[in-house]
């Protein structure tokens, strides 16, 4: 007969309370803003005093780290589903991009909060949760790199750039797009371009940068150039 020890019950209760605190903090961050919410407010929301709250999370940054780690695990799981597809490297790279943007569309408040907090929030690089986040970010980047490497091998991705370099370019652009500051969104809107269109146009924009183009014989290229000049 299996029995649960008193210590196991304590740990289970602690984990449940920790999850409850995280859920409450996440809702407050999304409803207001990361900078606009205090630890005192979070403590009040979950019915604890601040001293007890600090036993679970040292500060707001640590709360955000836990939220980021949870979301990163969700995204990595979706990426894993893309990696096993029997498709070309270019299509796999495109699928990873689509998966990322779908995830961002489902979690707009999360990315808004990340953009507001900024990269400076990770200054506590010795924190074990931050280290785990960086490990998952590296894994995510590796999946993009591997898809590009497959594309180079099967001839669907250009082979004159390093796949890691391309993966970093793509990852930086994708993150920048979903965390696009309101000012840039206003600029697009003034030009009649909605944010959804801006996101949906990204695959077409990036295709010309990474896809391997069919080579055109030199003689044919000169002929086309001459025709264009005459026209």
| Estimated helix fraction | over 70%
- Calculate the mean pLDDT score and round it: 88
Shape: globular
Helix count, DSSP H or I runs of 4 or more residues: 12
Task: Tell me the Rg in angstroms.
Answer: 23 Å
CATH domain class name of the largest domain? Mainly Alpha
CATH architecture annotation of the largest domain: Orthogonal Bundle
- Which fold name fills CATH's third level, the topology of the largest domain? Tetracycline Repressor, domain 2
Strand/helix succession? HHHHHHHHHHHH
Cα distance, first to last residue? 88 Å
Q: Structural class from helices and strands? A: mainly alpha
Low-confidence parts, pLDDT < 50 over ≥5 residues?
A: none
Give the total of beta strands.
0
Short description:
75% of the residues lie in helices and 0% in strands.
Outline the structure in words:
- The chain is mostly helical.
- It has two domains: 57 residues, Homeodomain-like (Arc Repressor Mutant, subunit A); 154 residues, Tetracycline Repressor, domain 2 (Orthogonal Bundle), CATH 1.10.357.10.
- The chain is 75% helix and 0% strand.
- It contains twelve helices and no strands.
- Helix 1 packs across helix 2 and helix 4 runs parallel beside helix 7.
- The longest helix has 27 residues.
- The radius of gyration is 23 Å and the shape is globular.
- It starts with 5 loop residues before the first helix and ends with a helix.
């Amino acid at each position: 007969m299996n029995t649960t020890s008193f210590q196991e019950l304590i740990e289970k209760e602690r984990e449940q309370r920790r999850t409850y605190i995280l859920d409450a903090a996440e809702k407050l961050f999304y409803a207001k803003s990361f900078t606009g919410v205090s630890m005192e407010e979070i403590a009040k929301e979950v019915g604890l005093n601040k001293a007890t709250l600090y036993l679970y999370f040292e500060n707001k940054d640590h709360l955000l780290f836990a939220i980021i780690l949870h979301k990163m695990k969700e995204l990595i799981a979706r990426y894993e589903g893309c990696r096993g597809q029997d498709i070309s490297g270019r299509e796999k790279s495109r699928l990873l991009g689509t998966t990322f943007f779908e995830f961002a569309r489902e979690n707009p408040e999360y990315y808004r909060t990340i953009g507001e907090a900024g990269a400076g929030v990770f200054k506590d690089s010795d924190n074990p949760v931050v280290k785990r986040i960086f490990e998952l970010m590296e894994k995510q980047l590796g999946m993009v790199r591997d898809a590009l490497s497959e594309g180079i091998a099967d001839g669907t991705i250009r082979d004159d750039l390093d796949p890691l370099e391309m993966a970093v370019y793509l990852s930086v652009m994708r993150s920048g797009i979903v965390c696009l500051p309101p000012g840039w969104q206003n600029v697009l809107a003034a030009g009649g371009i909605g944010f959804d269109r801006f996101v949906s146009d990204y695959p077409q924009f990036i295709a010309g940068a990474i896809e391997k183009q069919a080579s055109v014989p030199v003689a044919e290229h000169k002929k086309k150039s001459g025709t264009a000049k005459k026209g």
